Amino acid sequence: MSSIREVARRCGVSVATVSRVFNMPEVVSQQTRQLVLDMAAEIGYLPNESARTLATKKSNMVGLVWDTDHRRPGWRHPFLQDILVALKSALSAHGLHLLMLAPDQNAGPDSRQRFLRAVHRHNVDGVVIIDNGSRDPAVLALADAEVPCVALDLRFTGPTCTYITSDNAGGGRQAAQHLIELGHRHIATITGPMPTWPAVQRLDGFRSALVSSGITLADDDVVAGDWYLDSGYTAMKQLISRAPRATAVFAAGDEMAVGALRAAHEAGLRVPDDIAIIGFDDIEVAALVPPGLTTIAQDKTGIGTAAAEAIMTMLQGTAAQPEPTILPTDLIVRGST
Q: Do the domains at 4-56 and 61-166+301-327 have one common CATH topology?
């Protein structure tokens, strides 16, 4: 295997100069830098990442905190997967890599400290947190850990923290206004898991639009789900069984909306003639189910990209801490309404 000494010998420069090309390229002239890089490529030399981390005190690693416990379905949610692809792509463009970090599943009095030690042991340059609603104290401790942190759909604040989210309240209002404009007056909703921030915001926005139109959302017309298909199916069966039955349902997540569609079909209801259904997210399957699902679209690529850009801004230290980013939502009308 080629060594740094071989690169230096062939280029006629010192080993220290070759090291600076890979670790501190800004202090080496363009001509020397290109000479070293070309020679390294020619003889197949790759710098040792561990050595580079020690030299620069930077790992080029961004930790990803995302609950992947096999007992939970969070890892497979298509909305989160789309965000992850965008995040990884944007970080890779800046030479950064993702490292999965998992809080200790066996909660205990020292779980917070164990998790923080793991974060520092891996020497990650920053952390992205994808909220799973657990409010794990070990994860929340990152707010005071002086590690650049960006949270998604979690109002995460601290000296080196910011967050990225969609206009969930605005999206809830869009859903209600669409159904009201279609003439619906008895409208129900399947919420996300309470009290997660997106679920609360979507319900608040939805309810406020109904109130503005003089429509009351009865307690019996609100059923909680957990973002996933089965909960939407179960919640919709409950709503269908109630009299009088609502003529429209807002499911606060597309997977729940797909479950609601299935329950409606099994009950012999025609969508949208007998009951209209609108979702939230615009995951890929929303355009594929019969009928196509009307939904409130989130900018999934934009969320992942914004998270990467916020991390880069904090790592570069050239600007003030990024302000929270709230991305707009869009109404996508299909056959279910």
A: no
Superfamily of domain 61-166+301-327, CATH level 4: Response regulator (3.40.50.2300)
Amino acid in the structure at residue 61: M
pLDDT in tens, 174-230: 999 999 999 999 999 999 998 889 999 999 999 999 999 999 999 999 999 999 999
8 Å CB contact between 9 and 51: no
Q: Which residues contact 226 (CB under 8 A, 6 or more apart)?
A: 192, 193
Q: How many CB atoms lie within 10 A of CB 300?
A: 22
- The gap from C-alpha 221 to its chain's centroid, in whole angstroms, comes to 29
DSSP state of 321: P
CATH code given to domain 4-56: 1.10.260.40
Pick 158 or 31 by higher pLDDT.
31
Dump strand ranges (E) for 237-334: 248-251, 276-281, 294-297, 325-327, 330-332
User: Which of 281, 252, 238 minimizes the C-alpha distance to 192?
Assistant: 252
Is the domain 168-298 a CATH 3.40.50.2300 member? yes
Domain boundaries, the chain: 4-56, 61-166+301-327, 168-298
Q: Is residue 105's pLDDT more than 70?
A: no
pLDDT at residue 199, as a whole number: 95
Q: Residue 238: count other Cβ atoms within 10 Å of its Cβ.
A: 13
What is the C-alpha to C-alpha distance for residues 79 and 255, in angstroms, rounded to an integer? 9
Task: Quote the percentage of the chain above a pLDDT of 90.
Answer: 49
Is cis: bond before 291, omega within 30 of 0? yes
Burial of 245 (0-12, 13-18, 19+ CB in 10 A): middle
Query: What's the confidence (pLDDT) of residue 118?
Result: 65
Rg (CA), the chain: 25
